[in-house]
Structure formats: C-alpha cells, structure tokens
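Readers outside the structure-tokenisation community will struggle with the description of the input data as it stands. Showing the layout once, in full, would remove most of the difficulty. For illustration, here is how one protein appears when written out as sequence plus structure tokens:
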Amino acid sequence: MKLNLKAISEVLSAVKDYLFPYEKISKKFSKINSQDDLTIFIKEKSAFVTQSTLYGYLKTRMGLKQNMMFTDDIFVESVNKAKWNIFSEAVTDLTFYSVSFLNKKYNINNLDPYVMYETILEKEIITGLPKDLCEKYKSKFKEKINSFNIKEYSDKNPFTNSCNALFHWAPIADELKELDKEIVINSIKNKWMLVVADLEKIPVNLK
C-alpha cells in the first residue's frame, strides 16, 4: 500500500485543528467593520463547522481504527474529497445567511455575496481545494443567487445544503449512515447554532 504522506499530513492537521476548544476560535472575532472582516468570519466558521462535524463523525464511527484508516491512501483521499465538498456548501450557506441576517438586523444592503464566496474558495486552492471543484461551486453559487431572497433566507432552514452535504459526502458505509442520519444532521445543526449565536453578538458596523 502506497502512502500519500502529504494527504495524510493534511488530514491529521485538520484533526488537530478540530481538537482545539471552540472558545479559542471564537475569540478571533471581536468586531465586523468591513466586507473583508465578514469574509474572514464566514471562512473560519465554515471551516470550524466542517472540521468539527466531519472529523467528529469519523472519529466516532472508526473508534480505535482511526489511526490505521488515516494511513490508507484511498480513505484519506475520500476524506479530503468530503472535506472540500462540505466546506464549499458550508460557505454557501453561511454567506447567504450572513447577508440575509445583517440585512434584517441592521438594514445592510451593500454586501456582495458572490465576491465573498469567490474570495474564500479561490484562497483555499493553495491549501488543497481542487481548481475544478472551486469552479463547480462558484457556478452553483451564481445560480443560487438568482433565487436568493435576502429578506427571508435567514428564517427558512438556511443551513440545509451543508447538512445534506455532511450526510452525503462523509466516507462511511451507506447502511451505517442511514442509522446515523438524525444524529449526523443534528450535530451539524448544533454547530451552526453556535455560529449564529456568535454573529448575533459580534458588534457590526458596515453601513
């Protein structure tokens, strides 16, 4: 079996990030004063949700086998594929949610969701996001903008795409995922609740 050391290193690094307490991540954001600030918030929180739910699910399902599995090339490749697909959907959900929420709470209308989304994904190419996947999700995001309702999005199941992505892309046998579905979906919903709570309490000055 050939070991892909770079891919294994990336996965283990992400697992390490997942082990950091949530408070350590949330302290990075004391205010949002620009679209750039909001873009960073969306990127960091989407990464947090992706890592904590995907790797949390994998660690729970694999148990003591996790170290062995992370040295398997095929498994590592499937984890990375899942990570980037879930992350891309998470950024989609949080970008639309943030724009809708800030419009509703502060009457902010000058944000460009596509510019934020494009900025986040293109910067992730240097950390491993495949270029073709980046272009695929940028195109999907453009299509979704056409049906995006800024006044209603934040109130109507705003994180459905990423919840479904976690369930779909997690490299776990289908028969096991069906047993875990409710728990998996609830786990990512709970993480999004933490992110929403953060956004609600961070001082925002974007007018």
Q: What stands out?
A: Residues 31-201 form one domain. The chain has one domain: 31-201. The radius of gyration is 17 Å. Residues 74 and 80 are 10 Å apart (CA to CA).
